[in-house]
Write a structure and sequence with these properties.
Layout lengths: L1 H10 L4 H32 L7 H12 L5 H22 L5 H7 L3 H34 L4 H30 L1
Helix pairs in contact: 1-6, 2-6, 4-6, 4-7, 5-6, 6-7
């Protein structure tokens, strides 16, 4: 099992181009979030609480589903599913146990850490794009951007479908063989 983990670790190293893209996305995302902080703090002061924890957040969800950014609710989970399926097939070929089981229950801490790292590397750029797109869509739809909402909505649209697709693909592939 350790050799399989080492092979998987060496094949999941990001290329220099991927690292540059990640840095550019991280800087753009951080810039958008930092631009949103003063408005978010003003909202918190004026309304005695943060937007993410307010009823306004839940009232604005229908606007998000019908506004200019509505396709991201389809595209982001779809890309996450594709990445999850690809990673799940690689896990099955390597003979690794299902992703979610490994991350939560597997007794080998090295394997657990390696699986978490490979999952993180697989979805980092997608999560950064999700946060960035959510922040921009908030500006387009609501006329204002709240960083807490962008940090909550973007990753949820990506992480949950990825983890589920990766685990189920591995399990189904191993059962089929």
């Amino acid at each position: 099992m350790t050799n399989e983990v080492e092979v998987m670790a060496s094949s999941s190293q990001p290329t220099p181009k991927t690292r540059r893209i990640t840095w550019v996305l991280a800087v753009l995302t951080l810039f958008c979030l930092l631009l949103s902080v003063p408005v978010s703090l003003r909202y918190a002061r004026d309304n005695d609480g943060f937007y993410l924890l307010s009823s306004a957040f839940f009232e604005d969800i229908p606007k998000r589903l019908t506004g200019p950014g509505r396709f991201r609710f389809i595209l982001q989970p779809l890309f996450a599913l594709i990445l999850g399926i690809r990673s799940g097939l690689a896990d099955a070929r390597a003979g690794l146990p299902p992703y979610l089981y490994t991350v939560i229950f597997h007794p080998d801490p090295h394997l657990r850490r390696q699986q978490m790292r490979s999952g993180f590397l697989a979805i980092t750029n997608l999560v950064l794009m999700g946060i960035l797109v959510d922040s921009i869509c908030q500006w387009l739809i609501l006329g204002i951007s709240y960083p807490g909402a962008a940090l909550a909505v973007g990753p949820v649209l990506i992480a949950a479908p990825y983890v589920i697709a990766r685990a189920l693909t591995n399990r189904l592939t191993r059962l089929a063989n």
